[in-house]
Amino acid sequence: MQSSRFIMVALCATTLASACAHKAERAADVEGKPQLNILVFGDSGYSYDWLDKEDHAMPLDARSYIIAQLDDWIEDKRPIEEFRIGPMHLSEQTGGYVYASGLWPVARAMQTWCETPGRCDLAVMLGDNIYPSGATLGTDGRDDADRFGALLHQPYIGLQQQNPDFLIYPVLGNHDWDTSRGGAMAQLEWMQASPLYQFPALFYRSKPSPDVELFAIDTTLMLAGHSVPEVVLDQHGRVLPTEVFEQPAPWELPVGAERDMLSWLEQALRESDARWKIVVAHHPLWSSSGGKYHQAKVLRELLMPTLCRYADAWLAGHEHTLEVHTDDCRTVFGAPDTKPLVQLVSGAAGKQRPLNTLFMTYQDQRYPQKETYYARGQLWGFAGLQLGDETGEITLLTTPDSGTGEPQVAFRFSFERRSGRASLSP
Question: Is pTM beyond 0.90 here?
Fold first, then answer.
């Protein structure tokens, strides 16, 4: 287990937490006997032992690090009065300051949370399991077996030691694909061989209980097959038109059955007899930092017709934040659905990221189908998802920047099961 020294630095006379709760918490006990309790975490694979090459090439002293963070804040068009430095770490490996890692603090917090019997039956892992560059097949002179052990096994094996039946159901994220298709496949194959993970394929369906089915897809591959503009914001957080598009790596382009992932998902959801149908992916459909706007928009255009008709919830990471949104599906049905589709973003298990409140205001005004119930950045945390007979409850949990790893309940949100209704048939 890694030790770390965290330093909190405030540049502003008035420090504003990067937090936003647009709507009042809807707290309610899950009705009926709970069907399943799912631990939800993502973007966990950031460790001091596996830093970016730039961290080694250009070690930063404290002042240079803070200035770089301020430059990024201004470049991303975030309100300057909200600027806050999150926890930073003096790296023994590089001799400079880097982002503090939440890998072990969040892992400890999850294990503490799951000590209560029945609270954690399984987990979903939402991608960027290895950060920043996935498995390398030894091209960086380091053994991937060590990388897999440090990032995928050691932090989470305690969850299975507490509950021998505990399994983690993962997906891959864009950083898992960063080096090569071979690197992504190496991670998949390692997880397939590990008794801690259930990962049969890049996209798959699995029934961890008779009443709950998980549908896992690879949104990195899905997005690579479509045109996705780069995000350009003006000083007010509004999205500007651009002719510049993201350029996926050649190995990220879908091949074979991967090209039919969307139709596979629709058929799998439609034919499922599960009471709860939960879709798991890396990229969110709605998020609040601004930088993922076009990725989310493309995915909504592709997926919402299927999700609105057949799914109960969408679980994603990618943004290093904790967020709960709903979409009322009016773009699919022509009028708001009485049971909106819930989306959980839980990508705060490794590296922190701030929100962009100007962009959030723009997005709220532009998209009336979206409701944001909770959005908070610059934190570490994870989520719990409890599914009952007819209602589910999301619990968002944070853990302190000090790195001590205590779980703290930040927000609870209840919602109704929506799949299986005649009104949602095609």
Answer: yes
